[in-house]
Amino acid sequence: MLRNSHLFLILFSIMVVLCCSDRDHLVNSQAEFILQPADLHSYEGNLDHAGLISAWDEQAFTRGERIYRTQCFQCHGDENQPGSLPNARKFWADSFKSGNNPYAMYQTLTRGLGQMPPQVNLVPRQKYDVIHFLRERFIRPSHPQSYFELTSTWLNALPGGDQTGPEAQPYHPWREMDYGNWLIHCYEIADKNDPPKTISGGRAPLANEDYREVNFAYKGIAMRLDSGAGGIANGNSFAIFDHDLLRFAGAWTGHGFIDWEDILLDDQHNVYPRTYGDLQAENPITPGWADPGTGTFGDPRIIGKDGRPFGPLPRAWAHYKGFYEVQNHIIIKYSVDQATVHEYYEVDTVSNQPVFIRTLNVSENRRPLKMRILPQQFPVKVISRNATLSIEDGYHILNIPANVTSSAKILFSNNENDLSELEISPEIDDLTELISGTTKETLPIVTSPIIPIKGKSAFDVDIFTLPLENPWKSRLRPTGIDFINGGKDALVCTIDGEVWKVIDIARPSGPVSWQRIATGLFQPLGIKYYDQQIYVGCRDQIVRLHDLNGDEKIDFYESFNSDHQVTEHFHEFAMGLQVDDEGNFYYAKSGRHARTSLVPQHGTLIKVSADGINSTIIANGFRAANGVCLNPDGSFFVTDQEGYWNPMNRINRVMPGGFYGNMWGYGAPVDSSDHAMEMPLCWIDMKYDRSPAELLWVESEKWAPLNGGLLSLSYGYGKIFSVLSQKIDHTFQGGIIELPLPQFPTGLIRGRFNHLDGQLYVCGMSAWATNQMLQTGGLYRVRYNSDKDLHFPIKVEFSDKYAKIYFTNPLDEKSALDKNNYQFNTWQLKRSRKYGSDRYDEKSLPIEEIRISSDGKILTLSIPDLEPTWIYEFIYNLNSKEMSPVSGALQGTIFELSPLDI
Known about the structure:
The strands form nine sheets. This protein has a ten-stranded antiparallel sheet with strand order 13-16-11-10-9-8-26-25-24-23. It has a nine-stranded antiparallel sheet with strand order 19-20-21-22-17-18-41-40-39, with no helix packed on it. Strands 35-36-37-38-49-48-44-45 form an eight-stranded antiparallel sheet. It contains ten helices and 49 strands. Helix 3 packs across helix 5 and helix 4 packs across helix 5. Among the domains are: about 5-155, Cytochrome Bc1 Complex, Chain D, domain 2; about 175-200 and about 215-435; about 795-895, Immunoglobulin-like (Sandwich), CATH 2.60.40. By secondary structure, it is mainly beta.
């Protein structure tokens, strides 16, 4: 992967995406490439294309197959299993836009075309390897009319050169990153010799696998137990604690940690990570502690549609509280009945064989407690105070009587001789003393410059270059931002589990300092600083972070709420984190991709009470709701993505109790008609936004023309849109229009206004389902420049015959009254179980008359054929009063027309 920030800044500052002219006769002259030749590596102009192609062999095919599997399959799929983007090129059936010869295909991979981003992480040989695979695996057998036969004449006509490009380097940033000595995720507990994973294929909805006997730790806290640099990814001895069931889930040894198969780790689709190495011990999926009222271990949790239990144990039974970080290891805290439990894991060796040590401190409880240690076949030794060991129903049981404080040191291995030979102190650590004895640390600080980009419009952009050269090899893929210290500093979370403090973020120029203050969290996708405390929205919980000794580093990762129902499915992201005036928190939980739901939280908007005790589903029927926006009237804005039962992307104005269209979400009605769902504020065509993210209100007088307005961030195209809405009786309808900004080099996910400087800060990343792949992550400041006129629509109204558009600044009357400067197009969509929708009943509506207000700011268009439509597109190319170009496209939805003429 290219990590050259100078290339990214150049591409950004010249406002990509650029349309390129054709290089030569070997490529379709109509192909509109994203990158120009000048944007590419210098070696691209001196490549021996003929030599690279002539070197194709079985090894090249195998290498290409590996690349296709990890980087292409997720979108394109194959003949038997559709990709995640059904409109992506089907190599076994579709023709090629830029040409079907290998050189033309190479240009598409190198320069990007349409929704296909440039593959900047591949060297020339890798690109030709995957082209070879495509030709022989798909095109020759299934679409022979598109198979280009190689001839010596054609090879000799290729551009000449004497280079083959750099050698391919192993690109495993997920494996190289130092996550710290713990990482929360969903893991399958397995041995390296276990059979391959069973994952359903075929057409959507994919069938549920029978995973009832698969040992998943859905909320697994994986811990590295041996010492050494590099964090958990570089360890050799590991244990997992499942904080849903408060059980020890498994321990294993061997270099590698896990297989890294996950959409946000190695980019693989429809899969989950599995432990990698020699499994030393494991517990099945069962409560770690008996019900204090009955002394039994029956699982009381909700049962998913596939027969598996999910979610945490009842709070009165047992409840996860969080963990403390002590000298790069963690002490886990939870309650059982009224008792508080702390536990800690270590590893020792006997004759080079591992012996695992689990230390527990249990406070006094009014009733006796029982804990399942391990199944009986695993050797166990216990050193305890006020606790005894027994065998019950095939398990080693730790028994703790009522009304005593107890502690235990539990030793286990897969070999009984190891336990008998190990010399170990009879003393049991007081874990609370370890917690209170943490010493201050000096956190490393890395710096990076702010690069200001002076815009041609009324907006300027500052790029906060990310400190990619950092001690942890962090990938720095930001997914949330909020401000502390009055806006002077910021908190940024990343999808890889970190929280960074960005110091002096409001400064206009110069370097800013970054400190990594927390790590090891489960896919954070939102962060909120509220009431002087830091909250992070993760897939398994909302975490409240505490610095106990004033050194900035987080010492206690408190679980504020862990009601989240987590399965192994990759697509069920917990998106966004917002708080209302009463302290209640909100986030959106996505549904499963290409599958029906399993648990009640799939495809929902969720409210968490201010005390963190209760979670309530507010609305359902979402597919991939990327964040949540709170509205002053008590409603919400939640975006959703095109897909099955979603004919197009949508911005939803959400009210409690509403169903928003995804029939594969939990709690969908029997009636699949459009009347049974709430319509969105507007449908968003893929032309304008491939993947909308979170909305936010403009709360800044510095943005005066747009202050009080609504913005929508685009993950798919790296853009920012203004959202314009109209209310007619009880109906809300609206549309979007792109702010005059260059496309950002990453997808945008979250944004907030900083009240210190009044400007907008946005962050994002590049992974699956975005065109913006030039950087892995980005952080930006968007400044409104009041010295320049905006010339931008801020309001639109539709009546029976008219459209009325309000602009921020006066327009040139002559250009405004010229009908040739406008297009008004409409089309319909069809919602079904099909992925997305074609366009139906496309029309171009004639404009009969145009009026302009005396101040030049309001256009009134007479459109006699105007009627409700799923999609409208209003394109204008005008001049300002000062004769500068004013152009744009307003795209939205009309449900109703006002009965009054405008």
